[in-house]
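Consider a concrete sample entry:
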Amino acid sequence: MPTHIAILFAVCLLIGFLGRYRKFGFWGYFFGSLLLTPLIGIILLLASDPKKDRQ
């Protein structure tokens, strides 16, 4: 596996991990950054709201 693809995948995993308590969750941010770009994934992450607690 080329190094740049591994780095891209790792950055997408990191974005997903950071978004796990956000509106779209881990998988939403992971696939969003994987399909679009990690830069767009970071922008989505920063622009989103945290999840609301169910009570």
Remarks:
- The chain has three helices and no strands.
- The longest helix spans residues 3-18.
- The chain has a mean pLDDT of 89.
- The chain has one domain: 3-47.
